Amino acid sequence: MKLNINTVFKISSIILVMIIIVYILYKHFAPEEINSPNVIAQYIKENKNLSPVSFVIKRNDEILVSINANEPMPLASTFKLILAVEYANQVAENIIDPNAQININTLDAYHLPNTDGGAHVNWLNYIKDNNIVQDDTVPLQEVVRGMIMFSSNANSDFLMNYLGLDNINQTIKDMGLKGHGEIYPIVGAVALADYMKYKTNLTDEQIEEILLNMSSQEYIDATLEVHELMNKNELPATVKEAEVVLNNLDMQKIWSDRFIFATANDYIRLLEMINSKTYFDAVAQKELNYVLEYLDIAPIIQEKLNHFGFKNGSTAWVLTDARYSEDKENNKIEIVLMLNDLKPAQYNKILSNLDLFMMDCILNTDFRANVINFLS
User: What is the torsional sign of CA 216, 320, 348, 247?
Assistant: First the structure.
């Protein structure tokens, strides 16, 4: 069965600045079946004991809702928050320069066309349209922001090499994220089946069997082998076409199931650190504000909140979302939602209401209270 892997990044590929606009329009003009954020609360309640669902709301250090908060869940692109933190820490420690110029052609080594829902191309268009790119170079800071704002996977895997995977995974330990799995190259993982085909000429069925039976460490090591070729810009052209994975839904499911994982509690803890504005060094926090809180320019955010940041992600079976904010009375809130094994009809309905649900949990006190009561 052929499925374009673009569907894997339905959330990530959207220009996320539109979220606030969408929120406003949905509140006033959307049909009832779409303008129904409570369908997500209903799904959580009905499925919390049947399928992988995690949901946590925390406000001013108090847990208001906690459902399956310690269950490991695939993160999709939400894991990129960790890369942003490592970047900010290294800037604060004067290890890297946020204004270091990165050639955008260097990033192409990590880009597999047609596998990211247009995220990387959308980012490239954005930096060109806004005169951020000069002589084919952009500041490192903008590469990180592009990873968050547009969810460029090419930027993510580039940053894994630039920052160092050992450093990234040590930071996870240092922050006490005890349920967090090891971070490894996600583009390398997408290319893995095609790389195996290139090296061995095995059938798709044989490759599937091998991927299914790999230990976690074997799988990570295999993605690192592909990643090293990308670092040297030596990945074979046929592998970059990703023909095997683009045409094989089962292999996409393996990739989704083996994605970097963590618990909702891990990400609530991470959001609290960022939202506190005191956990990280002042220089690091300034960098985090820039790359994560780009929607603070939106009028509704300026009216209702002191600051707001988020990251979400998706595969064809997974939806994840992590958001934090502080309101005008200095009340802080963190929300994490993680869903897995979604059927297509469920996926589409939840996706249509996800932003509205999460923003209502932040901005609408009555709605949040109703969700808490409903899920209690």
Answer: negative
